[in-house]
Amino acid sequence: MRLRRLNEKGIEELGMYLDALADNPMLTPPAEILEDQAKSESLSVKVDIDSKKFSNRFDAAKYLYDKFIEAGVADSDLDRGVWAWLSLFWFDTLRPPAGKQAKKWPGERARWIPSESHDWKKFYRHLLAGPWRVYRFHRDNPERARVVLCGPLYAPGEASEQILSRQEVVTNRSVVELATRMYYDPIGKKVKRGAASKGAGTFRRFANDFLNQFDMTWDLYAMTADQVATLLPKEFNRFLSERR
User: What is the pTM (predicted TM-score) of this model?
Assistant: First the structure.
């Protein structure tokens, strides 16, 4: 289907649908507004989007990045109406599978419709725009960001929350590379067991306590991943020493 953007009427209807899901989780998405001339608009460029499933956030981000680059889509064209359209188009892809329905389905509206504000802390929560932004920033080596993009689209996970909620962290290539090296399991293609807990050496300790402390005295942006690793206290050794 040709990519379009929802206008304010379309965004409003999608928002009403999301509200209604609280009472009826299996309510059918209003897919008809995707091509409704009164509720959506065409783009200045042509982008054909496929109806498909994605194994994880990385695959979805790569797909969108490649599509937008191929079509010459400018960042300024990717407004909240485009991301809202994509959320609706891939609604079933973004929905948790049976048996894994979130307690507060479908979650906060920002997961589906980006805020009008360009505040990073709000924009990154979008289930598609967030991963795409991370992939785009690390486009020279997307693999370094695996740890924050390895989860399913419907459940970003603790690793994503801890890293993505802070723009100064997710845009630090060395820190993200080190986080992937320590906490990503390339065999299981997921975050390592125990990394998302609250104990010593965990992702939470790395993102909140360690980075907050050392960012005040060290220029982490100017350091390599190996150099940052030398600053880590012994509690992180169990993840640094693991080789899968």
Answer: 0.90
